[in-house]
Amino acid sequence: xxxxxxxxxxxxxxxxxxxxxxxxxxxxxxxxxxxxxxxxxxxxxxxxxxxxxxxxxxxxxxxxxxxxxxxxxxxxxxxxxxxxxxxxxxxxxxxxxxxxxxxxxxxxxxxxxxxxxxxxxxxxxxxxxxxxxxxxxxxxxxxxxxxxxxxxxxxxxxxxxxxxxxxxxxxxxxxxxxxxxxxxxxxxxxxxxxxxxxxxxxxxxxxxxxxxxxxxxxxxxxxxxxxxxxxxxxxxxxxxxxxxxxxxxxxxxxxxxxxxxxxxxxxxxxxxxxxxxxxxxxxxxxxxxxxxxxxxxxxxxxxxxxxxxxxxxxxxxxxxxxxxxx
Length: 326
Ligand SMILES: Nc1ncnc2c1ncn2[C@@H]1O[C@H](COP(=O)(O)OP(=O)(O)OP(=O)(O)O)[C@@H](O)[C@H]1O
Fold this sequence. Notes:
By secondary structure, the chain is α+β, with helices and mostly antiparallel strands. Helices cover 23% and strands 31% of the residues.
């Protein structure tokens, strides 16, 4: 196994902020660690990088223990690069000075690295002439000069507009494909991770609450915390479900049925007791709030908008797979 995280625990001020974290990563498999602020993502990443001492457990890279800062003179691991969300670049330097170590690379490798990080056009600039996103790509390039095997990125998408997020996603894809570097990143906005990750680890209060591929996590969250991290959802009672499901595949249970808004299909139906209460235009689609007796249903419409107060028939899309949350 490329990376093996085994029983990692961490205490701050007598309180466990990470509790028995276990997971493994195959080479080139992209892992995202998602979770609300304070759930322990950064601390876990720093422990994997060998920059924070764990109070329990061990991380192994290619079968060898990653030493913590108490075990070595110079904290960190030569095969692991860690980009903090609070990285710093010295202001009065030119980019080419910051990247002077790149001279150790062949010209071809240095050019590939600069192209992958989309910084070819920036090398003559001074650091204070760069935007936040450009600085981040320089910081990334500086780390990658050392040819790490594993790259750890803490909140790389925070404070970024959608255009720069997409640019960074392409850079990360190229880092994996062209530079053959395995990557783990954290995000408190898990929507950023769905399109990038092969696997998502969801954390809450120092625990892993769910681990799986993006479709699994998105469509089959284990609880409301995971459901809510990844966008809007409905939790519908048995009565409402019986009404909107034409098939009788739902059995009576205290649990509620989990449905993402886009898994519901709407039709104009004057005989339906369900009405449109509110709607908000989101560009690619319109988000609708429906009234079904005392229940509220959230749905999406991409075609022509309905009118508020209009009666609509609601049914489950053909692809919907039954999922309940307690
Ligand atoms: N050096 C420290 N001393 C004391 N407590 C700390 C320290 N570092 C982190 N913590 C606490 O440990 C918990 C986990 O913090 P951590 O930064 O790992 O969470 P996070 O999920 O990365 O949050 P964010 O998304 O805000 O970065 C928090 O309660 C935090 O206050």
